[in-house]
Amino acid sequence: LLPAREPEVVAAPAVPYSYCSQPRALPARPKYRAPPDAAEPEKEPVHYANLMYDRRVVRGNTYALQVIPVSTQPNHLEIQRQREARKRALARKRAKEQMQPRTPEPVEGREHIHVQTELYLEEISDRIIEVDTECQTDAFLDRPPTPLFIPAKTGKDVATQIEEGELFDFDVEVKPILEVLIGKTVEQALLEVMEEEELAQLWAHQRAYAELRNAELAEVQRLEEQDRRYREEKERRKLQHMQMLQKQKETTEKIAARAFAQRYLADLIPSVFNNLRESGFFYDPIERDIETEFLPWLMTEVEETLERKVLGRTMLDSLICTVVEKRLDTFSHQPLSGQTEAPAEEPRPTDAAPQVAGETDAANQLVMEKEETDRLVAEEQPSRHISFQLEESDQAGTEDLETE
Question: At residue 136, does pLDDT exceed 50?
């Protein structure tokens, strides 16, 4: 054991104790680290109580130190620069903490707990376990004793004669030795026999235990297999029931869809056919041929005939107007009765006769052309009447088909 230290006598201080800084309570230290997104609490100014950590103490060579007088005020730019540097450091630290991977938030109804993930678990308790341990140093070994001084042998050896039977009697001395040997041998044999019997009993107990254990394992396996079969049968029955319900639902939906489709399409097909018929998709080929081929040709021919008729009438009217104007001019320029040259001018009507005859011939020709055009128009009117009758009969046939 270590020697106990004598209690030192503490002398009462002559001068009362003074502090470098005012005593203060330690801030409450949280048990766990705060999350990265939590607001960082404001840190109180640190009051240094140890000169080794006071920044005002200069270390090293002080020859080139620029001593700033106490009365000098601190530079505002330097203070602002220090504040900005501190803000940047805090922002960098906060960003670094946010970039670190965190545990995802727990789902609803659960909460996170703190567990130990070290290789060796440590029991956490409020009271720290204290154990007293002692140690003892080895004692110093003494120097071995000095060997006795034995002088050198001098003189002659002297012998002593011992007769037979003076020191050892075999018959008397061997008896306890034999008793010990035989007793040990018999005892060892008995121990071995008892050990063999005990081993035999242990083997019997082991065989019985193994048989019982095998029987229990077989029973457990049988029960597990029976439970597994029951569970599989239950799952199979549930699946069959779900499939049956699914098929019933699908059948019901199909029947409802078929009924809805029938009700919806009952009036759809007639309305579609009516719309297609009204739009002109269903038509009679003969009627369509008459409308697209015959009627346009007929109208074109009628227009050409009417144009020729109008042109002939216009030309006839212009010729008649010309002849009438010429005759009016001729009759308006007749000679007076008192002129002497009247007999000489009588042959002129004979000269003008060819002109009048020509004019009358042209008028007669125009009249003949007009009569011929009237005859052609009269001939075309029955054909037009016939075409109109054919068109009416085709429309009646199409209406009969639609009613059917």
Answer: yes
How far is Cα 403 from Cα 387, in angstroms, rounded to an integer? 25
Query: Residues 72-94: pLDDT tens digits?
Result: 566 778 888 999 999 999 999 98
DSSP 59: -
Structure tokens at 163: 């007769």
pLDDT for position 27: 65
What is the residue-wise DSSP string for 205-272?
HHHHHHHHHHHHHHHHHHHHHHHHHHHHHHHHHHHHHHHHHHHHHHHHHHHHHHHHHHHHHHTHHHHH
DSSP classification of residue 164 = T
- Cα 199 to Cα 74, 185, 213, 244: the distances in Å are 95, 21, 20, 65
Closest CA to 360 of 325, 315, 330, 323: 323
Positive/negative CA dihedral, 13, 16, 21, 22: positive
Angle at the Cα of 142 from the Cα atoms of 139 and 147, rounded to 5 degrees: 160
Give this prediction's pTM.
0.23
Q: Which letter, b or e, does each residue of 392-403 get, where b requires 16 or more Cβ atoms within 10 Å of its Cβ? A: eebeeebeeeee
Taking the C-alpha atoms of residue 290 and residue 284, their distance in angstroms, rounded to an integer, is 10
Give 286's contacts (C-beta < 8 A, 6+ positions apart).
394
Q: Encoding tokens for residue 124?
A: 């956490």
CA distance 167 to 155: 28
Q: Is the dihedral of CA 14, 20, 25, 27 positive or negative?
A: negative
Angle between helices 295-332 and 348-403 (to 10 degrees): 160
- Which phi-psi region, left, alpha or beta, contains residue 165 (left: φ > 0; alpha: ψ -120 to 50)? left
Q: Tell me: the pLDDT tens digits for 293-343?
A: 888 999 999 999 999 999 999 999 999 999 999 988 888 876 555 444 444
Q: Are 110 and 28 in contact (CB under 8 A)?
A: no
H or E stretch at 182: helix 170-266
| Listed residue (303, 321, 299, 323) closest to 311, CA to CA | 303
Task: Give pLDDT tens digits for 244-261.
Answer: 999 999 999 999 999 998
Let me know: does 335 contact 345? Beta carbons within 8 Å. yes
